[in-house]
Amino acid sequence: MNRPDTDLVPPQIEIDRLIHEPARLIIMANLYVVDEADFVYLAQRTGLTHGNISTHMARLQASHYVSVEKMFLANRPRTVYRITEEGRLALQQYRQQVGDLLAHIDTHSPGMFD
Prior knowledge:
Blueprint: H1 17-20, H2 22-32, E1 37-38, H3 39-46, H4 50-62, E2 66-73, E3 76-83, H5 85-106
Antiparallel strand pairs: 1-3, 2-3
């Protein structure tokens, strides 16, 4: 059995685990490209349930990655989400981190992962 290169993934590449969770990543990616999104829009775009969106939004809001505004529109409740500057920066850094990791993998022996 071949032992994998112990230096395959350098320890200095750290991934933001809050964003790395797939549901939160898809939420953040959707918020990154729009000015704001309401609950219905996110449910349609992400395929997540209302409970999942609420749970993940609570984590993102607690980390100051997303702002939440609750209001009434025509006597109906409406929740609007926006990515914060901190969240935008965190997603950009996450993208760089993942890119660095994948670039590092690319420099190793071809076929290593086949």
